[in-house]
Amino acid sequence: MEKEGLEVAGKKIGKQTIRFVNKPIISGMCSVVGTKEGQGPLKEYFDVILQDDMYNEKTWEKAESKMLKEAVMTAAKRSGVSTEEIDVMLTGDLLNQLMSSAFMARDLHIPFIGLYGACSTMTQAMLISGMIVDGNFATNVLAGASSHFCTAERQFRMPLEHGNQRPPSAQWTATAAGAVCISAAPNENVKNLVPPPKTICLTEGTIGKIIDTGMKDANQMGAAMAPAAVDTLLNHLEDTGRSPDYYDIILTGDLGFIGKDIAVDLLTDAGLNRGILQNIYDDCGTMIYEKEQDVHSGGSGCGCSASVYTGWLFRRMRKGEINRALILSTGALLSTISPFQGESIPGIAHAVALETM
Hints:
Peroxisomal Thiolase, Chain A, domain 1
C-alpha cells in the first residue's frame, strides 16, 4: 500500500527534482531595497526604496531586520490573509544566528523556521514553502530573505571605517529584502482587479548539491558559485526532460558579471546552445546595478535575488510578459573563519520552476 501511494503521488522526478502536484501559487509579494539599488536599472519595479540605508534605526542590523519585516508583512497583506492565517514563515539572511530574521520574527508571533543557504536562501525558502503547501501541511506560508551591504561588510570583510579597497572581482552585497506568500489557492480579491493578474504557480523544484572546485579567494564569489548553478540547472533539465528554451527566462541569483560568463562557458561545454542561453539567461547580480555604480563584478547577497524576483520577475509574470521562468539562487557557504583556516568555498544552488495560468 505504501509503494502504491508513492506512485500515485508522483512527486519525485529524476534524482534531485520534485514536482508540485497541487501547484502552490504566489499570492502576495513585496520588495524593499536600499538607496544604491533604488538608483539602478530596476528602480521602477521595487515596492519600497529607502531614502537612508539606516532606515531610521540606530544600527545597520536593525535596519536590515526592519526591511525584512516590511517585506513579509506587505507580502502577507497583499495575499489577502491576516498574520493569524499564516501557518509558518521561512526566512534567512547572512548574519550570524540569522539575526535579521530572528529579530524580525520575534514581534510577529508567527510559527518560524530560520534558513541559511547564504545567497541561495530565497529560492531555498520558496522551494521548501512550496513543498509544505503542496503536501497539505499548510495553506499559507511566508518565504523571504534579506541582506545589507554594511552588515555583510562588517561581518565578513572589513569595517567600513577602514575604507579598504575592493578588487575588481569583488561583488557588492545588495541592501535589499524580498518576500512572497505561497498559498494553496489564489486570493479571491484579485478577481476584482481589471485586468486580473496572471496567477504564478510553482511547478517543480530542484534541490542542489554542494559543488566545491577548490576556490579559496573570498573576492571571487561568482567563480565559486557558478559551478553549483550549472550543476543544478543541468540536473533540472535532465530530471524534467526539458531543454533550456522551454523557459522564457532562466535567472541565477547573484553570480555577477564574472560568474555569469563562467556559467555560460560551462553550460556551453556541457552541450547547451550558447545562442539560446544568451537569449533567455540572465543573472540578478548583473541586473540590479549599472556598471557605472562602482559595484565591480555586480550584486550579491540574499536580498539581491529576493528583490529582483519579487520586484522585477514576478511583476512581469503577473502581467503575462513572462509565462515560464526558472530561478536558481546561488550561495557561497563560507563562514567568517573558514577562509583563515585554508578552507575552500563550497557552492550551492537551488531551483524553482514557475508558470503562469
